[in-house]
Amino acid sequence: MSKKKSPNDYPTDPDSTDDEDPMAMFRNAVGDVKPVRNDKVADKPTPPPPRPRQFELDEQRVMYDAMHTAPGPEDTGEHLSWARSGVQKRVMRKLRNGYYAVQAELDLHGMVVNEAREAMHEFLAEVSAQRGSCCVRIIHGKGRKTATDAPVMKPFTASFLRNHRDVLAYCSAQQADGGTGAVYVLVRGGRE
Description:
- 33% of the residues lie in helices and 14% in strands.
- It is α+β, with helices and mostly antiparallel strands.
């Protein structure tokens, strides 16, 4: 029985090689080594700080809605614009640019609110019944000659149109068609 050799039993002199001893050959090939003090796997990198993901998603949604939904009931300034839910952006863009042919018009100049309400109700019912879906123009005026210097007919017209069941969308007309003193209105047809 041969005694098992410990690493200290092998020669460490690089010049003294024993061709038959594989351990000596290995030590000569490797040379001096530095002992490792830690034999454990390196620590995991520090995780990134927590992010408020729901807050970020909410912020992204607000920005998306601001960029991709139709304007609110009344834009800032003198321009009016509104669209019922489901009306596509490109339809609103065409309406704003005067792309649709105006097939009928109603002029509210000289009317008081009650007369204008009745006239718009009759006008929209008639247009919807006779022409079906179409684009009309309602001239409400700019309201600069009122006693209070605040327009009356313009905000009333916007409110009336938003609440009428046959109105799909409206926006201020092109300058040639009355500008901010008139609106293009998309009317839904086929209702009795």
